[in-house]
Design brief:
With 484 residues, the chain is α/β, with parallel strands linked by helices. It is 39% helix and 14% strand. It has helices at residues 15-18, 46-49, 54-62, 77-91, 102-105, 116-131, 147-153, 160-176, 196-200, 212-237, 259-281, 286-294, 305-311, 360-374, 400-418, 467-477, and strands spanning 8-12, 95-99, 135-141, 182-186, 242-248, 251-254, 316-320, 324-327, 335-337, 342-344, 378-382, 423-429, 449-451, 463-465. Strands 1-2-3-4-5-7-11-12 form an eight-stranded parallel β-barrel, surrounded by four helices. The model has no long low-confidence stretch (mean pLDDT 97).
């Protein structure tokens, strides 16, 4: 058993969680710039956790400070990326997944000409990656759409946003296409239902009579159409370009073998894969359409939309995998938080410091399930553990829990490969500590590299290598043979 030759080992980040420099060189406001620090929210009530309103956005925009808006400062990757890329190269990265902040290129999303300073920033970074022998994997949309599109159009709810996104994507292909063949359209496209504002700029108080849920499905349809268009564009503009979709793989097991639990679980898993089904098969699953109809949700489609979706399918399937959960029809079943979800507790699994259920075998099951379903190459583009690290006086961090997490997941990946799964690569989330997407905390640390900054933005921002840094370096150097 071994990882295939040329396996793409690396790490992944999103612009809004690392770059900072939120208002420099012509960058416009993005939805991430108004995301507030929310460490203590009861994640058992996830709806409250992601609450947003026009009033809250206005309040955030009136506040020039970044203390409670940590994504405005990130980890200053904007100015330090050379040092960070050098550290990734030292670990032996073959690939680095990054996203392009849309509002750096089109500050309000609607300009006819792109912001040259934003383009130059990414070109410099991509050139540096190539110099270091690291292949970029570019996500076009990772929770950072221009805020202006959200305020003016209620985000992706409005069809006109498709054109804005296509214009942005075209510029990315034209200017960055010479640096990489590997692209992803929408990060965790399924997350629109869980956090509509972060994912698609939807503000509930702008949804009117239609209601938020219907707006989400309408916005999702627009994203599917946009994904179809940009898949084709990628193939036309980027020599050898390959476009992937990106799914949050929320692995769910039945809590018991009671048939009702199994049926509820099946529904949950099918709902989770509906998004990649559309982008891989190029059509809406019949059962999803039936379900929407039953719920009185009508998606407005224009003639030609389904044709675009059918003709713009993806080349590979990427996904994030952090945890698993169970499902039960028992309303009193004990629940636990996961990646922007609440699941029923699994008595056989340990949890992370944030309550997420750690399940390496679930990664193998996911890989097999997805490969069997889609029969296209897979890419694990996020996997990792958010933990409370302790920095020792000498700058080291003894994070054996992180090593243990990765080792167990890699072993399961290897078994899936051995079973015949075609896996292109693996990018950990995240190779360097960054701002958490959901809680906006710095103290929820994922990296192999420690960043000296606390939740309030205090610290020198200096970088240091954790124990896991040396371990991952060894894993990459031996292509997964030495995981001890
Ligand atoms: C994924 C997102 O869902 O989970 C990332 O794509 C995010 O942006 C990651 O950072 C981990 O979640 P969190 O909330 O711990 O940052």
């Amino acid at each position: 058993m071994s990882f295939p030759k040329g396996f793409l080992w690396g790490g992944a980040v999103a612009a809004n969680q690392v770059e900072g420099a939120w208002n420099v060189d012509g960058k416009g406001w993005s939805v991430a710039d108004v995301a507030t620090y929310k460490p203590d929210t009861d994640v058992k009530n996830y709806k409250a956790h992601v609450e947003i309103s026009s009033e809250a956005i206005k309040k955030a925009m009136d506040d020039p400070d970044d203390t409670y808006y940590p994504k405005r400062r990130g980890i200053d990757f904007y100015h330090r990326y050379k040092e960070d890329l050098q550290l990734f190269a030292e670990m032996g990265f073959k690939v680095f997944r990054l996203s392009i902040a849309w509002s750096r290129i089109f500050p309000t999303g609607e300009e006819t000409e792109p912001n040259e300073a934003g383009l130059v920033f990414y070109e410099d970074m991509l050139r540096e990656m190539k110099r270091l022998g690291i292949e970029p994997l570019i996500t076009l949309s990772h929770y950072e759409m221009p805020l202006a599109l959200s305020l003016k159009y209620n985000g992706w709810t409005d069809r006109r946003v498709i054109d804005c996104f296509v214009r942005f994507s075209r510029v990315c292909f034209e200017r960055f296409g010479k640096y990489t063949k590997l692209w992803l359209n929408f990060n965790e496209v399924d997350s629109i239902i869980r956090h509509p504002f972060t994912t698609a700029g939807i503000i509930p108080d702008l949804c009117g009579e239609k209601g938020e849920t219907a707006c989400c499905y309408q916005a999702l349809h627009h994203q599917f159409v946009a994904a179809g268009i940009v898949s084709k564009l990628c193939h036309e503009i980027v020599p050898g370009g390959r476009m992937g979709c990106m799914l949050t793989k929320l692995m769910t097991y039945p809590r018991t073998c009671k048939p009702e639990d199994v049926a509820a679980t099946q529904k949950k898993n099918l709902d989770n894969m509906f998004y990649s089904d559309v982008m891989v098969f190029g059509e809406y699953p019949v059962m999803i359409l039936r379900d929407l109809e039953r719920r009185g949700i009508e998606i407005q489609m224009e003639p030609g939309d389904l044709h675009i979706i059918k003709n713009g399918t993806v080349d590979f399937i990427s996904f994030s995998y952090y945890m698993s959960m169970t499902e039960s029809v028992d309303p009193n079943a004990e629940r636990t938080p996961g990646n922007t979800v609440l699941g029923v507790k699994n008595p056989y699994l340990p949890t992370s410091d944030w309550g997420w259920q750690v399940d390496p075998v679930g990664l193998r099951i996911s890989l097999i399930e997805l490969y069997d379903r889609y029969k296209k190459p897979l890419f694990v583009v996020e996997n990792g553990i958010g933990a409370k690290d302790t920095l020792e006086e000498d700058g080291s961090v003894h994070d054996d829990y992180r090593i243990e997490y990765f080792r167990k997941h890699f072993m399961e990946m290897e078994k899936a490969i051995d079973d015949g799964v075609e896996l292109m690569g693996y990018t950990s989330w995240a190779p360097i500590d960054l701002i958490s997407a959901s809680t906006n905390q710095m103290s929820k640390r994922y990296g192999f590299i420690y960043v000296d900054q606390d939740d309030m933005g205090r610290g020198t921002l200096s970088r240091s290598r954790k124990d896991s840094f040396y371990w991952y370096k060894k894993v990459i150097a031996t292509n997964g043979e030495d995981m001890d």
